[in-house]
Fold this sequence. Notes:
- This protein has helices at residues 2-12, 15-39, 45-62, 65-71.
- It is mostly helical.
- Helix 1 runs antiparallel to helix 2.
- The chain is globular, with a radius of gyration of 12 Å.
Amino acid sequence: MKGxxxxxxxxxxxxxxxxxxxxxxxxxxxxxxxxxxxxxxxxHPTRLGLALNYSVFYYEILGKTSEACDMA
Length: 72
């Protein structure tokens, strides 16, 4: 949820604020992904939702379309 929060902020701000929010979102998603890989099955709904939201972040905020598709 923390990653989503910062992703939403990054959608509506620009410049340095967008960079800051993007970095915070990426950090939160990375941490959550690590935890989910250690403690949840690959088919767990929460882990799948995290992967989807993280891929949306890569696609919409970072503009990294191929990485987003690989992640999803």
